[in-house]
Amino acid sequence: MQLIAILFMAGSIIVASWLADRLSHERVLIWGCVGTILSGIAISPMMSSGSLSTIFLYLALSLCAMGFVNGPLGAWLPSLFPARVRYSGTSLAFNIGGIVGGAFSPVIAQTLASTSGLLAVGFYLAITGGLSLVAFDASARARTMYALTQSEKRYRAIFEQNHVSLCELDLSRLREKLDEIALANGGSVRDFFERHPALPTNARISYTLLTSTTPR
Predict the structure, then answer these.
(1) What whole-number distance in Å separates Cα of residue 20 and Cα of residue 13?
(2) Which of 115, 135, 2, 142 has its CA nearest to residue 66?
């Protein structure tokens, strides 16, 4: 039964990888974590039902959820690390995570099942899925802050390393005056200045000195 159910995992890996390329790796992984939580909730009533079809259905759906986690993982995990440490970071994260999260899980599950029943195992699965969701949120926030910091550094470098002075012109008053002239002359500013070539607009142009780096 389990050998047949594992075919659903193989199929879900292909589907999850396809969806990750078209949507996003994080979204598909989050779906897999939600499926893990639901699997933990359903393990006790479905596995204790005594019905082979119900047990098979549970195994198939649980392995599908596992496929949605394993499918995009190979592309998502390297994206967490910069290029110079990407291989090392991915290898350490995957292997340490597999040891800490995978090696002890059967022992913990067996202990919980023996002492408290399948309901405790279900809570364990749901908690691990919830922790994964929290980790995804923390990872997304950290990457957003890193990208924002890098963008700010690049923006500052434009002014700090520039060898010429830069200024910002505020032409809003001039635009307002030209709009008034256009409104008063049927929308034609050019005709107005052709009739009054020496007439000033009385609009001040303000400027702000952004940087005044002395050329070296």
Answers:
(1) 10
(2) 2
Neighbouring C-beta atoms of residue 67, cutoff 10 Å: 22
Give the pLDDT confidence of 131-189 residue by residue, as tens digits. Answer: 888 888 887 788 788 888 888 888 777 767 766 666 667 777 778 888 888 888 777 77
DSSP characters over 81-130: S-GGGHHHHHHHHHHHHIIIIIISHHHHHHHHHHHH-HHHHHHHHHHHHH
What is the pTM (predicted TM-score) of this model?
A: 0.61
20, amino acid identity: A
Candidates 142, 148, 125; CA nearest to 46 is 125
Q: At what angle do helices 2-22 and 52-76 cross, to 10 degrees?
A: 40
H runs (alpha helix) in the chain? 2-22, 25-47, 52-76, 86-97, 105-116, 118-160, 172-184, 189-195
For tokens 């939580």, the residue is 37
3 state DSSP class of 58: helix
Decide if pLDDT at 46 tops 80: yes
Give pLDDT, residue 154.
82
Instruction: Quote the CA–CA distance of 130 and 37 in Å, as a whole number.
Output: 7
* Residue pair 153/200 in contact by the 8 Å Cβ criterion: no
Contact present, 9 and 66 (Cβ < 8 Å): yes
Other residues' Cβ atoms within 10 Å of the Cβ of residue 18 = 13
- Answer yes or no: is pLDDT of 6 > 60: yes
